[in-house]
Write a structure and sequence with these properties.
- It comes from Scopulibacillus cellulosilyticus.
- The chain is mostly beta strands.
- It has one domain: Acetoacetate decarboxylase-like (Beta Barrel).
- Helices cover 8% and strands 50% of the residues.
- Strands 1, 2, 3, 4, 5, 6, 7, 8, 9, 10, 11, 12 and 13 form a 13-stranded mixed beta sheet that branches.
Amino acid sequence: MKMQTNHRPFPLPIRPWMMTQTWNDVFFIHWPIDFDDIRDKVPKQLYIDTFDGRAWIGIIPFHITDFKVRDVFSIPLTNAFPEINVRTYVTYDNKPGVYFFSLDAGHWMASVAARTLTPLPYYFSKIDLTKQNGAITYKSSRQDKNSSNGEFEGTFSSISSTYKSEKGTLDEWLTERYCFYTMNRNKLYRCDIHHEKWELQKAEGEILTDTLVSSQRISLPDKKPVLHYASRNKALIWPLVRVRK
């Protein structure tokens, strides 16, 4: 991958990246939300990031291909699967990033491996992706017996030509994130990520079912979400590093 980095808000890590993934048919589905509605659900070590005074919560369905460890091999039987993330936006040490409330993976082995090897809240879900007449439908049902309810179904389509977000806009703020944060045994960790700037399209759609967010005891506002679509982007992913004891 050609390392174009001038769109990043902070430099690449010096240490080597660990793996690559290609993210396909990505929908960014976002709602503004009151800061107080999520403050107690995000680790206190993290600052909740806001745009024009509002926090945001997102549901991000996509499907992964080309899941590979650097210079070694594809992950056996798990190099392609759909995933749906529920996330909000945070900062720490002047590095804006993502905080995941949940990650639903459409592959049992991938979800078990991710939950075993990382502190991320992964769940195994049956996720179907269908394409028809220019629209894409994601339908997901959580299969983990001991997890809270988590279902999602929505149909979406792009409605504009591609563009790259302009600096300082909400489009950029919601989509151009280059790390995520997670907690493990009261210690804060960061995972750095790199990819080219997203080639976005405006999108529209309908959500038929969503209990992914409500299972987190978060209520979405009664308004249409802000929708973006991106067809593909290849990402480099670094190992987790502890950033605070």
